[in-house]
Amino acid sequence: MFEDPPADRGHRVASGDDATKYDYLQLKAYSVSAESDDADTVVFTLDDQRHLRVKRRVLRIMEAFDGTRRLSDVKEVLAHGETPVVCDDDQLREFVEKVLVGRGLLVGTSGPKQASRSGGLWVRFPLVHTDTFASVFCLGRHLYKPGIVLVNLLACTFLIVASALSVYSAGTRLGALDSGWLVLISYLSLVIHECGHVSAVYRYGLAAGRGGIGIYMFVPVFFVDLSSAWRLSVRQRVVVDLGGMYFQILTTIPLSIMGIVFHDSRYCMMALSVACMTAINLLPFARLDGYWILSDSLGLDNLSTNTWQVIKAAVRGRRTGYGRNYEVAAVFFALSSAVMILLGMSAAYSAVMQFSTIMRQLGNGLANVASGHFAEGVSILDDVFVACIPIIFLTFILGKIVFGIGTRFIEGIRASKGQGLS
Known about the structure:
- This protein is mainly α.
- The strands form two sheets. Strands 1-2-3 form a three-stranded antiparallel beta sheet.
- It starts with 8 loop residues before the first helix and ends with a helix.
């Protein structure tokens, strides 16, 4: 018979070096779903919406820690059954420390910071939960039927070529466009882009989280929480990754048709601009869609999170524990991120040096909007916004750093006082 587990078992995980701290450990509430691409792998999902892909053998070890067993009992349970797992006490303790405690999977432990979702290079402003527009996304999922996808892509290809010929024959230049409307169309296409990702998730019977606006490495972005996609197969995740570009390129259809019907090549130029924006997302830099397509298709999970660890291990001449493809991708991601950061720092310096000019542009933009010159005013305000993005980003990042240092300092003071009282 097992002894009744102590009530403070969750606290004992990290409270000391006593011999019983590995007894009566319990996993947090979780669910398990199958990984369709690999029968030996499952997706382990915690209630805090963290997802891990683990081998079934590892899952069996994890599930042995159900809060009712001592470490010796866990070892005994694992050694029997249909698929025995033989391990000694030291191996189990290492598993507890590195996996269960290190990843915050046990009751009484906290998970690691999710650098891949809200790390130091992100500034996020969640605005709305995607469930609010569930009916729209339920309709959008039908656009992923193979026949509809084929027809849409053929139509986009034909109309983009027709738009290019129209622009070439008319000699239209980008400067001839009403830039205010071009700005609005560009931002609208980015919103539709995110709708494409969400609709793809709905296509596979899942839901997305909150969406909003933000800044990633000095670049303004729209975003949506797609952590539920971890439950999907590799092929399905790639479809979700491509879904944003698929929906965005569909916006070229009405623009191209308007240009052809009204014999106005400016609409065709807008369609080509949207097509170029869509193509840029294929680049595997930073965290564009191309990055997610590459990481999901090659199984490079948590690449942005683990990049720094890979780089440190490589510099020290140590084995990283990841494959060669992962290491090469990590170095590429680090280099592309460094380039973006340097460009962003340069833009921030330029914005500071031209601050008075930017303020005058802001005044001109607001004056144009107030006087009814909406398109011109919007274009000027967009230029001001883009110029100020690096300063806004650095301000928030420095604020987060100062807040983090202050929080750790206060926690240290409280901890020292607590030790003094004890």
